[in-house]
Amino acid sequence: MSSTAEASETLGFLSKERIIAGDGFNRWLVPPAALAIHLCIGMAYGFSVFWLPLSKALGIKEPIKCGPDIGFFQELFITSCDWKVSTLGWMYTMFFVLLGSSAALWGGWLERVGPRRAGVVSTVCWCGGMLISALGVYTHQFWLMLLGSGVIGGIGLGLGYISPVSTLIKWFPDRRGMATGMAIMGFGGGAMIGSPLAAELMKRFASDTEVGVYQTFVCMALLYFIFMMAGALGYRVPATGWKPAGWTPPPQQTANTMITQNHVHVSKVWGIPQFWMVWVVLCMNVSAGIGVIGMASPMLQEVFGGSLIGVDAKFGDLDKAQLTLIAGVAAGFTALLSLFNIGGRIIWASLSDKLGRKITYIVFFVLGGALYASVPASAMAGNKLLFVAAFCIILSMYGGGFATVPAYLADLFGAQMVGAIHGRLLTAWATAGILGPVVVNYMRDYQLGLGIPREQVYNQTMFILVGMLVVGLIANLMIRPVNAKHFMSPEELAHEKKLAHEKASASEVGSGSGASGQSNPLWVVLAWIAVGIPLTWGIYRTVLSVAKFFN
């Protein structure tokens, strides 16, 4: 076989036609495939576990500080001193900027080539990026880390994040929210697995001359490659016109006017008002939530001070040993929030199938606004239970907002190109990733500059976040069914289906397609066990951290 033919066969193996499911395929095999990818790329949330070790990669015990004349651009190439934590944080920023931009740029391509090819590209980018970062750590070249995990890994993040969206919605038209909630729950849970795994690996590889980071990058890249590739190869798409047994689509304009049976082309969404309303909805929900995540640990410590460890003293009056103890309590609080963030993704998204997407977001904004507004009063009263409960519910709705929005888009714009439309919507996430932390951090510093006590500096911030939720609520209330003029005509839809290589059934592709027919129930069980074991381990490790808070 010639090299050209071999390349063609390889691309054919990744093609959309090859993964059309045959009769009897069990749709419950698809969510584990999505989870396998999301649980790996979700480690982007947990990359901060590397910051402190990397900040002393040369000094090992203590950082070798750069001189005052060394700026950010010099740090990209310098090999004689350690990187600052603030410099390393740029990788985190690049993750989510590249996630949003790459999802927007290549969302349309993903819809046409299918989730398998997109999943494989995501795997190569995310894991290859980690290997390049390992080389950057080994040679002490920060520009290689930015290129590897920041740029290339960020592209892998974007493609991996949206790769299952359209597929899951087509497999679960009867439970769109639940389906996307299961996958996006994995993204929230990725750090819950990856962070303790990375900590254990760094501990194993650390020595008198190494902090163990580059070895950890290599090991995690190899593990993630196996998991993500298995997920990508496990993707299947339903045949055109497939629907669950016994399910009937809701009649257009009767059962729920917010759910359309028509389809909008991704190239038109920039000019549709409903898209921008949903954009604002997501941006405001995420901005407020990211602000809380970023300040959760210091806020708890500064508001309650010594009372967290049974000492009658304010934060500023505690000694070093006491500060260490309350930092451990705050870490447990942060772990508790992560559990609610993850649980909210599946619970709220599933609930949206019953309530409807618009009502679900109304709940997010109204209940969330009330909870934010209650925080100053519970803090002033010293009521830790109400304070913690408020933020747990808030974080559940933050996660729920991520998981519910793909189903919202499918309701409004149809399922044909929802993955691509979701990709463009993720620019709201990139915006929120800058807006939320900047507002919260600026207000905290401003309040401290005015001489306001530490336990009160967050009060004003809470009401600013309430204002963000009010803006999101107004945008959500303005959303109406999409005007019929924006939908594709039958001819345009047929053309798009042709470009997307859709076939009426697996049999149209040919016997050598590799498409799956009857599913063995054992494979379903094994697939869920494969993703369930690491997820359970991550939850167990997180619960151990949460126990510190309650103790």
Oligomer: single chain
* Overall radius of gyration: 24 Å
Report the structural category: mainly alpha
Helix content: 55-70%
What is the mean predicted local confidence, pLDDT? 87
User: Number of helical segments?
Assistant: 19
Strand content: under 5%
Q: From N to C, what is the helix and strand string?
A: HHHHHHHHHHHHHHHHHHH
Task: Give the C-level CATH assignment of one domain.
Answer: Mainly Alpha
Described by strand count, sense and barrel closure, the largest sheet is:
none
CATH architectural designation of one domain? Up-down Bundle
Query: How many strands in all?
Result: 0
What is this entry, summarized?
The protein has helices spanning 3-14, 30-41, 51-54, 72-75, 85-113, 115-139, 142-162, 165-171, 176-205, 213-234, 273-304, 320-355, 357-380, 384-413, 418-425, 427-449, 459-477, 490-499, 521-550.
Describe this structure in words.
This protein has 551 residues and is an all-alpha fold. It has helices spanning 3-14, 30-41, 51-54, 72-75, 85-113, 115-139, 142-162, 165-171, 176-205, 213-234, 273-304, 320-355, 357-380, 384-413, 418-425, 427-449, 459-477, 490-499, 521-550. The longest helix has 36 residues, at 320-355.
Topology:
Elements: H1 3-14, H2 30-41, H3 51-54, H4 72-75, H5 85-113, H6 115-139, H7 142-162, H8 165-171, H9 176-205, H10 213-234, H11 273-304, H12 320-355, H13 357-380, H14 384-413, H15 418-425, H16 427-449, H17 459-477, H18 490-499, H19 521-550
Helix pairs in contact: 2-9, 2-10, 2-19, 5-7, 5-15, 5-16, 6-7, 6-10, 8-9, 9-10, 9-12, 9-14, 9-19, 11-12, 11-13, 11-14, 11-16, 11-17, 12-13, 12-14, 12-19, 13-14, 13-17, 14-15
